[in-house]
């Protein structure tokens, strides 16, 4: 066999081994980039969960301050009503003073002395299932006055060493939707907050269409037993996604960050293809060089 043929075959075998090595390297880059992307998204879900808890805890702190006002401590409800109206601040927010059995005494959406809504049974049951002195965050419910989806934060009012009342801050679910939208995630991503039942409280897009709907059975099953993780499925609007969920420890609500599968894999795929392309160019150059050397030997 001519020397140039042997040399060419040797280079060809070397190139084939190089291609195999390049494929392994590309897969390594793809896998590593995928893991890095998923870790970053999981951290984003955790950060938003903390943001939601901070927002809700801020409402609770406002109520704690309000619970200690002199007018409420001396049971001057007419004066306290004015303070509560001021604390409600936003027109779509409400402050409610309740007796321990859940009966409303003051509701800032109603004039003082006017008939008030009946007991919120779900909120009362949540209170009964919690410590009497605990701060609680409700699940999503429909307001009896506005007939819109809302949630509430509730704190105890302690007077002379005992719980005399509870104070609620009721807010529209849409207010939390605005908070999620402000995070500036890409338009194709879906950021949502669900309550303990897995019902959508807020969403970064399509708030009015999806509030109150349940997350998928598979995702709710995971969230019941795990505080964080991922789940492959489809969003409520039918897009195949990988969902990164994280339970907010203070409120026990869960944040779900859903990223389209195609978009999730794109950065890793692009990095792997770039590496594979560079290696292919190098191997192609080596093959051309081998042919050139073989021709010179033959000459």
TrEMBL record:
Spell out the subcellular localization from the entry. Answer: Cell membrane
Name any GO cellular component annotation.
Answer: plasma membrane
Using the record, list the residue span of the signal peptide; answer none if the entry has no such feature: 1-25
Pfam families assigned to the protein according to its UniProt record, in alphabetical order: dCache_1
As for membrane topology, the entry says: Multi-pass membrane protein
GO MF:
kinase activity
Q: What are the Cache domain coordinates in residue numbering?
A: 34-257
Q: Which residues cross the membrane?
A: 271-290
Swiss-Prot/TrEMBL keywords: Cell membrane, Kinase, Membrane, Signal, Transferase, Transmembrane, Transmembrane helix
Taxonomic superkingdom = Bacteria
**Has UniProt tagged this entry with the keyword Transmembrane?**
yes
Spell out the protein name for this chain: Hybrid sensor histidine kinase/response regulator
Which organism encodes this protein?
Answer: Zemynaea arenosa
């Amino acid at each position: 066999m001519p020397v140039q043929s042997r040399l060419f075959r040797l280079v060809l075998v070397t190139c084939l081994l190089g291609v195999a090595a390049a494929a392994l390297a590309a897969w390594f880059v793809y896998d590593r980039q995928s893991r890095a992307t998923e870790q970053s998204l999981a951290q984003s879900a955790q950060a938003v969960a903390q943001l939601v808890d901070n927002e809700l805890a801020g409402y609770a702190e406002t109520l704690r301050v309000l619970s200690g006002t002199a007018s409420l401590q001396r049971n001057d409800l007419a004066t306290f009503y004015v303070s509560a109206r001021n604390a409600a601040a936003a027109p779509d927010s409400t402050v409610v003073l309740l007796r321990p059995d859940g009966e409303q005494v003051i509701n800032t959406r109603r004039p003082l002395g006017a008939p008030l809504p009946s007991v919120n049974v779900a909120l009362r049951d949540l209170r009964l299932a919690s410590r009497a002195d605990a701060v609680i965050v409700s699940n999503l419910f429909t307001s009896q006055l506005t007939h819109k989806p809302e949630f509430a934060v509730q704190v105890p009012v302690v007077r002379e060493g005992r719980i005399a009342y509870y104070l609620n801050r009721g807010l529209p679910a849409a207010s939390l939707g605005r908070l999620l939208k402000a995070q500036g995630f890409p338009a194709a991503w879906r950021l949502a907050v669900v309550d303990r039942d897995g019902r959508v409280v807020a969403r970064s897009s399509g708030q009015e269409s999806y509030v109150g709907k349940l997350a998928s059975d598979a995702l709710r099953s995971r969230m019941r037993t795990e505080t964080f993780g991922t789940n492959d499925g489809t969003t409520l609007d039918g897009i195949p996604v990988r969902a990164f969920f994280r339970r907010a420890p203070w409120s026990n609500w869960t944040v779900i960050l859903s990223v389209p599968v195609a978009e999730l894999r794109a950065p890793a795929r692009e990095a792997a293809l770039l590496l594979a392309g560079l290696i292919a160019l190098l191997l192609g150059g080596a093959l051309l060089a081998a042919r050139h050397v073989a021709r010179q030997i033959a000459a």
